[in-house]
Amino acid sequence: MRSLYKIIHTTCHTQWGGLEKRIFNESVWMEKNEHKVIIVAPKDTPLFLKAKAHGFKVYGIDFKRLSTFQDYKRLKRFFYNEKPDIINTHGNIDSKLALFAAKKNEVPLRILSRHISAHVRNSWFNRIVYKKLCHYIFTTADYTTKHLQKVFKLKDMEIFSMPSGIVPPENLLEKETARKMLADELGLDPETRFIGFVGRVSEDKGISVLLKAFKKVKNGLPGFHVAIIGEGTSKYKEFLQKLARTLDIEGTVHFTGFKEDAWPYYRAFDLKVLPSKDINGIPFEGIPQSLLEAMLCECPVIGSKSGGIVDIIEHEETGLLFDTSNPSDLADKIEQSMRNKEATRKRVDTACKLVKKHHTIDVMGRNIIRIYRLHQVKLDRQPY
What we know:
CATH topology of the largest domain: Rossmann fold
Distance between the termini: 17 Å
Number of strands: 13
Largest sheet: 7 strands, parallel
Number of domains: 2
Shape: elongated
Strand order of the largest sheet: 3-2-1-4-5-6-7
CATH architecture of the largest domain: 3-Layer(aba) Sandwich
Radius of gyration: 22 Å
Order of helices and strands: EHEHEHEHEHEHEHEHEHEHEHEHEHHH
Strand content: 15-25%
CATH superfamily of the largest domain: Glycogen Phosphorylase B
Number of helices: 15
């Protein structure tokens, strides 16, 4: 049986978020295990540049609407020349083009990864993409898996929940050291304590809900500030700053911008909150890497009851859940976490063990290799 594979990952996305981190970290793990990886992404995007700097072979395609036919022809020629064993697509636009081109070139294993929980319509074209062009679908949350199974009548062995594996750092700062470093970075008293958010700073992440909840608990938590770690549009940041002024908490809400290394910030927080909102009543979150990373850092977590968040936060076991878009309920959960430190400590220990057992990059990598080999067994059994 073949043991080493040539794998191509494609994405049309241009940012540096959970999806792009997943592609890069998975690719590095595969390379360490002697597989060959090629990454196809828009030129000069963070993933493209990081992959190139790492030494991966990269192929630049911008996946623009006006260049669809040209991109398809380039992909088909590229797959013909490279002859990959596996292609894994990660975005809406690249999945449609790359899976068509890969099927045309008879790539042996074609995987479509769905990173968000947003619903997919049962259109004739989507049925072709999800039922005919790919052999397997990877999702990052059980919510997404169940939705796609229902929409496209997929069998259990056609779709797999495959949350992103966390790459633990070699060393973590002592929590007290990390907290004082963050206070110093923000020009605050060394004894300042933090409730934090890490991720994309956008409306769907529900940061406004966090600010409204903090307003409700602020007087009962003297010395606490909110730290927002991440990048977003200037328009949305201005909205949040205006909201903080309106709530009269402006002096206790801080925006650090994007941080390449978020681990020290998780260690600095007394509490990490992910208040993601549903969009038109539909969740979009898969299993968020930021929650897994915070759990590994022994940071208490609170999340909204949305999408894949509930896959890893078991209420009062690994963290606390609050009713989505409900600042009052979030405020209650913040107070509960701060008030009952013994129960919070138990949740932190349970959550850290969960991540180490089920959500590291090694666990994810081994699970993916099992799928590769499962498919190879099927191919080897086919009559000539």
